Each structure stands twice: as structure tokens, then as C-alpha cells.
Fold:
Amino acid sequence: MGEQVPIPAARPIIGQDERAAVDRVLRSGTLSQGPEVAAFESEFSAELVAGRECVAVNSGTSGLHLSLLAAGVGSGDEVIVPSFTFAATANAVALTGASPVFADIEAQTFTLDPGSVAERLTSRTKAILPVHLYGQPADLEPLAVLAQQVGAVLLEDAAQAHGAQYHGAPVGTFGACGTFSLYPTKNMTAGEGGMVACATGTLSQAVRRLRNQGMDHAYAHEVVGLNNRMSDLHAAIGRVQLARVHGWTAQRRANAAFFDRHLRGVVVPTVRPGHRHVYHQYTVRLAGALAAERDRVVRALEEEYGVAARVYYPTPCHELPALRRFAPEEELPRTARATAEVISLPVHPSLSDGDRDRVATALNRVVAGAG
Structure:
């Protein structure tokens, strides 16, 4: 192929409105946590989590960490998590002093398998933490039942799932806390940051206290806390993005529907009835492939067609050097298969019609050639 403009895996959309919002904050002189953060929390609550009280923090990982702490998770506890996810999910658990317990995923949805969770419940299980991976809701109802059976708390990692729905209700509203990421590549961004949607005032107060050095009031440190505050600069960006995220989600879903119709030789995403997928990633399977074969397809897409496909995630959490001590002998067959087979294609709302055609044509040709 000749020279082509590369199609990136992600493309944050930052325009004049975001720049104007930052300038407004700079002119105000209030740069740290202030009125922009408060407004962002209120608006995020109304737009994405059905009015749940929201607490803004400096990253999605911080949100997970503070959610766990607010729920009382600590040393000696166990938290059941998927291994097929970004390491932040398990890292947040380990940072509390608790142990992440890794469960397998459902083969078709890549989300936490309730049957695998049931096998790992113990008297030490303090929480179950599903991930709405790629923007696909996890199967929350059976997970909530399992949590109730052992007196554990259900939390949600909704880092990739702004606007996703489970049987008509937004993700982030089922668990005691639901955490969203606002990293640049997510479905909306604040430049960096996170948002925690809390089921009760007690939980939101705890998260607010923990994010602010353990203080409810200036210099009155009720608990040992952290500096996990969001700045007004980031909140101002987030407020602009929030006003556009529904339109961007509609475009992501339209792009995904196009790929569903036009891709050949791969397994396209499965969406369960009653689930609304928001396609942070459009992730296909190269069924039966070894990781090396899949990696050759990814390289060919980029080198021959300029399509930046990615692998999320090539190594499961329980095999990472930082986390393998929690599950040295664990075998998770569906997780292992996913790490070898998955390819995430560009699905972001900046794709043109020509981009979509090129992505689909490239994948179809490369996969046919690989076969």
C-alpha cells in the first residue's frame, strides 16, 4: 500500500470550548478543587448515573482505591476481581492491604463470570469488583446475589463504560460505588481524573474525606487520607466533554454496528439482551489463534494499512510480576484464551466513513491472508 494517513487507536477530541474553559479557570485564580469540581460532580450525576452523588478525584485508579477504602476493605480481606482487565483494578485492591482474588471471565462478553466468582467466595470475601470491560456491562444481578450471600459489597469498575446500561439502568448505579475514568483515551476526558458515584451519603462523605487528606474541615484530619483531589482545570474540561459524550457514544455505536455488518473471519463483540454497550473498544476475537498469530495480524494492520489496532490485554493480571504473588498457581482458561485472541480496532467517534471502510477492508484482507 502507498503512503496513508494512519488511523490511530484513539483520538481525544479537544477543541476551542475546552481551551476556553481552561482559560476561564486560569482567569478566576481558583485552580485547585473548587466551584468547577462541584459543578462537574453535579452535572455528571445528572447525566450519567441517575442522580447518584458523585465525587471527583484525580484518576480512575484513585477512585477505585478510595471506593474500596470507603467500603471498609483492608488488610486480611479478599476482593474478587477479573484477571482480564487493566492492572489498575487489582492494584487498587492491593493498595488497601487486601488480596485480589482472580476469577475467570465469560468467553463471549469478556466480563466477570458469576460461576467463577462463586467458586472463589470465602469467609474473607469483603467485596466483588466486576469491570465493565470495553464498555460492555458485566452481569450485575447474579454478582449482587453472590455478594449478598456472603455479606460482601458489590463495587463497579466502570472506567471504560460512561453511559453503558444494564437492563435500562446506567452502570455505576448497582454497586455501593461505581468508578469512572476520565483519562484522555476514555469515551470522555477531563485531561486526567476519575469520578466515583456513591449509593449513600455515608460513602460519598467517606470518599470526599479520603481524597482530601482525611479532612471534612480545614486542618481537622479525621482519618489518614490522601491527596486525590481533582483540580478545577480538569473539571472545566470534563464539563465541556460531558455535554458531548452522548453524541460521541452514538457515533461509537454506529461505528460498531458498521463493523458488525462488514467484518469477516473474526468473532465480533457479543452484546447480551438488555445490555447497552458503549464501545470504549471494539474488540474482536481471532478464534483459535495463538498469541503470535494474532500479533502478526496486528502488525500487518499497522504496517500495511496504517490501522493502529491494539491488544487489551496481552498478559492477564494474575501473571504480571507485580501481582502474580496473589495467585501463583491460578489457571483461568477463558482468560488465557482471550489474551491470545483479542484485537481492538479503532472505533472512536473521529473515524470518517472512509476510515471505517479502510479498517474493515484491512482486517478482512489480513485475516484472509493469515488463514
Remarks:
- The chain has two domains: 16-242, 245-370.
- The mean pLDDT is 97.
- The chain is about 40% helix and 15% strand.
